[in-house]
Amino acid sequence: MPNLSVTQIRIYPIKSLGAIHLQEAVLEPRGFRYDRRWMLVAPGTGQAPWQFITQRTVFPMALIDVALTDSHLQVWHRHRPADRLAIPLEQMTEETLPVQIWDDQVLARAVSAEADAWFSRELGFSCRLVRMPESTERMVDPAYAQDGEIVSFADAYPYLLIGQASLDELNRRLGTSLEMSRFRPNLVVAGGTPHEEDTWYQLRLGGLPFYGVKPCARCVLTTIDPQTGEKGTEPLKTLAAYRKLNHKIYFGQNLLPAAAGVLRVGDPVEVVERRPARVPFP
């Protein structure tokens, strides 16, 4: 079997906006440091709290890029790079907002009036930027948690891993070359066979232990071209032919961390325990 290794590390500081590629990242319980600690929200209806916003419904979010410095996030629209918003990494107001992410409701803190105005102008509707304080603990689904793990503003789990071989197989079937960015992983691993990561239950990345707890169900967001913000039918149409189970389409493996540390590109991946894949693949 070919050696397995980490070839990419990505974080998405503001949920559903641009990715940042890192050579190394600090492993924290709710995800890599700075990964999805910020989120855009819009007012709910009636008594509902503030609702999370993603590319699923707001396609132009795909065109907002993010960079990380030692002290700030830099945010800009790809077509207007000179108009940049600088967000201090620890900036939060005292204003607390109840925010809804899928079935979860947690408390977040407003970041700044300047950030609210910038994003409202760029997206064309009123929205606010919030940050997850350390005091907020959003729990992982207890059906898959190992030890009461927590998660950031990510959809459901702290880490998402995809094997490069899995994307290569999809592109072979498509007859084209979709980018890995369509699937927004935190970790890309080289070596092995297509969808082999489905079977990884206990593994070590750079010596750090993880659990592979659930294949990742995919949605319409994967059909949005990250370069143009335009929506199509692929890759869900093709994936449905061989990665569909119980009306859901799966691609990638959700991970839970079992230790803290630093992970680096090039670190080896060791599979300690395998379990049968939930989604059969020949």
Which key phrases capture this entry?
282 residues; mainly beta; M1 Pyruvate Kinase, Domain 3; 2 domains; seven-stranded mixed β-barrel; five-stranded mixed barrel; 22 strands; 9% helix
Topology:
Blueprint: E1 4-11, E2 20-22, E3 24-28, E4 31-32, E5 38-42, E6 50-52, E7 64-68, E8 72-77, E9 80-88, E10 96-101, E11 104-110, H1 113-123, E12 128-131, E13 138-139, E14 150-151, E15 159-163, H2 164-174, E16 187-190, E17 200-205, E18 208-218, H3 236-239, E19 244-245, E20 248-257, E21 261-264, E22 268-274
Parallel strand pairs: 6-10, 15-16
Antiparallel strand pairs: 1-2, 1-16, 1-22, 3-4, 3-21, 5-6, 5-12, 7-8, 8-9, 10-11, 11-12, 13-14, 15-20, 17-18, 17-22, 18-20, 19-20
Can you characterise this structure?
- The longest helix has 11 residues, at 113-123.
- The chain folds into 2 domains: 4-10 and 26-33 and 140-274, M1 Pyruvate Kinase, Domain 3 (Beta Barrel), CATH 2.40.33; 38-136, no CATH class.
- Helix content is 9%, strand content 41%.
- With 282 residues, the chain is mainly beta.
- A 7-stranded mixed beta barrel has the order 1-16-15-20-18-17-22.
